[in-house]
Amino acid sequence: MVSLMLAASSKPITPPFSHNILPRVLSFYNHWNKTYGSTFLFWFGPTPRLAVADPELIREIFITKAEFFDRYESHPIIRQLEGEGLVNLSGHQWALHRKLISPVFHIDNLKMLTASVGETMAGILEKVAATAAANGGEGGVEVDVAELYHSMTEEAVTRTTFGRSSFDDGKAVFQLQTKLMAFAAEAFNRVFIPGYSWTGNKGKAPEVGQLPERGGGGGGGRGQGLAWQMTSPAAARITNSDIVEECKTFFFAGKQTTINLLTWTTVLLAMHPEWQDRAREELRRVCGARDLPSMADLPNLKTLGMIVNETLRLYPPAVATIRRAKADVELGGYCVPRGTEILVPIIAVHHDAGLWGPDAERFNPARFAYGASRAARHPNAFMPFGLGERTCIGRGLAVLEAKMAIAAVLRRFKIRVSSNYVHAPTVLMMLYPQYGAP
Ligand code: HEM
């Protein structure tokens, strides 16, 4: 049990930040709005709420479930996108789904993914190299970084969800989901999401409800993916529609988050060539003559791991998460009534100078040299994948993809920021570069 989880306890719970974090959260958002000129909205709408005084503070600081759902979650497009899967389930249903799905992320399954993810990335980079060569080679080639990572992340999440036997059917389903994502971007009309331009039937979101044949073709659990796992005998109470919802959730939770991580990592490496050189040198040392790292190489890529962590700290794709009190509880000296929902502002915690020191705003992967729990003044200050029982189930997969993809890019290219790049981080469900990342 970690400090951010709420439980029925008479002991005071010490979170890694005090309630004073909220004004700091807001000044953080304002600071980014002013500095980058981006439309960086507080998660719950354009009028952020300020904590003033007790007992009003409880009302203001802790956003109630009703308010939260009214403002964001209940939007039909968001519900369609997220699916009624793990992210949105609770109680026994959540526990059953989580137990059934966990084996999908077993190390053996991740091992199988390493090669296919590496090959897909290598194929994409081959095309980029060909374009650069056609341009004369010397000046390089300008690409939108997010687009570079679309196919690889889609392949990884499709293989994880549908496994070997239903991969092609799964691909078709996820193409619909991509259209839905574009539709959402259009509907919200706030931000440009690289790679998601909606050209379909305006005003009508596509339906994502088809599932490849139940049972997925058999052949054993390894490499068969989430859809197959959920049809095992242990999953007797799971319906087809449960599985469809869970697939949607996987796509939503697993694809764009990873693209965003890869996009920000690439941007930061382009801004900090000295870290590019260090990561490249490490790759040469660890992988030797091999073009791409093997699964066994990945843990030895320490510098790359530090770079990925520092990116997740400064630009966490998921900017916040929510916890609801199961019972009346005391938190940071406040009595939190049962049912209250608490916003955990991941991004603001990650930028807090009180936790990370005076260089909190600086890109400094070296702070992770002794591991994530020793990088800040509080062992839980680093939480890009959340914390506790509801922590991200796809964390291992996301880090694997990130290391493989960045390794493939660094082995082949030097990265520079284009003169067309405008640094404007913004939030639309996740953290994006508002004008893309050329
Ligand atoms: C950089 C990539 C990713 C980031 C930053 C990220 C972040 C998160 C965060 C913050 C949560 C909420 C955790 C909490 O409230 O404590 C979460 C949950 C979740 N994530 Fe991820 N995620 C990533 C990749 C993935 C991938 C690749 C998958 C699946 C293929 C995935 C599937 C899920 C699911 C199913 C949940 C809900 C877990 C539950 O409630 O039991 N995520 N993620």
Automatic annotation (TrEMBL):
Residues engaged in binding heme: 392
Protein name (record): Cytochrome P450
UniProt subcellular location: Membrane
InterPro entries for this protein: Cyt_P450, Cyt_P450_CS, Cyt_P450_E_grp-I, Cyt_P450_sf, Cytochrome_P450_Monooxygen
PANTHER family to which the protein is assigned, alphabetical: CYTOCHROME P450 734A1 (PTHR24282:SF224), CYTOCHROME P450 FAMILY MEMBER (PTHR24282)
Keywords: Heme, Iron, Membrane, Metal-binding, Monooxygenase, Oxidoreductase, Transmembrane, Transmembrane helix
Cofactor(s) the record lists: heme
Keyword Heme among UniProt keywords: yes
GO biological process entries: brassinosteroid homeostasis; brassinosteroid metabolic process
One Pfam short name: p450
Subcellular location, principal: membrane
Family: Belongs to the cytochrome P450 family.
Gene Ontology cellular component list: membrane
Coiled-coil segments on the chain, per record: none
Domain of life: Eukaryota
GO MF terms, alphabetically ordered: heme binding; iron ion binding; monooxygenase activity; oxidoreductase activity, acting on paired donors, with incorporation or reduction of molecular oxygen
